Amino acid sequence: MLAFALGITAAQAQAPASAPPLQVREIGSMHVGGQVRALDGMPMREMVPSPGAPPIRMDPNGEFMVEGMYAQYVKLAEPRARYPLLLWHGGGLTGVTWETTPDGRPGWQMYFLRQGHDVYVSDAVERGRAGWARFPEIFAGEPVFRTMGEGWGLFRVGPQEGWNADPARRRAFPETLFPVAAWNDFTRQSVPRWPTTDRQIQAAYNEYVRKVCPCVIIVHSQGGNFAFNAALAAPDKVRAIIAIEPSGTPAAATDASPLRNVPHLVVWGDYFAESPFWQRIRGNVERWVGSIREAGGTADIMDLPAEGVRGNSHMLMMDRNSDEVASRIQAWMERQGLMR
């Protein structure tokens, strides 16, 4: 069996000296979901396909494969986890969330591989390697682009008024664990997102679950609602959900009883007192947690500040204590019987 050391040079350099190479059985990828959409009546146009090439006439009419998603997987030679681990990103982001951190440390993809999980990292519909579609002809409306400063307050790295284009003049929360010197590198990960594609994203995630599960899902922010609904659609396929600061839930009247055998863990970071927006979100999520419990299911909350861990931002998997947070999640999975 070939021994693989997975990761980029910076990640390898920061791995513990005693960490053995990963024994990897397979690395691959797939596109999942989507449909064929046809366009007609669009005007022809001329373009030069590459420098020095003659112009060609482009016909935008015809059939297009759209609304699919992308996933990359790393399968271990001898996984210790009973089920593959699927990592789902949040809004305006891609699967890069889970790879190397903005300041060059190994991310949760590597952490959980080293804990013995087969790991799948995906890009949702219209993100990253999933590809776009024409808009507004196929995707309604137009994409939203996040500014460099929007996430400073939204992701609770610092007060919004502390943002400044000049790094030397930015003001973060005094105890923040986000690697603020790498903020500009983090914003390079930002991609456009549509506010009108939830239905298409959910359909692709549901097909993804049907294709690769049974599985455990770790999901972040906007992805939370997609994971909750995917589990409702296929409770026999989802063995657990770990929701990292989820920003949405199923409708209040949704019956949570199908999830009584799907343990849930919700993880919260710090600085909620400084964000009325996140306080409202948290209230909605914890009501959903209550619905699962009332239906006879397991729904735990990991409130890091209440456990003595202060300073985490919304991007817990990138914070300087990301491995500590991951270790707490790993321990929860062990207690749920998800490891061999």
TrEMBL record:
Superkingdom of the source species: Bacteria
Organism: Teichococcus oryzae
Protein name, as recorded: Esterase
Signal sequence range: none
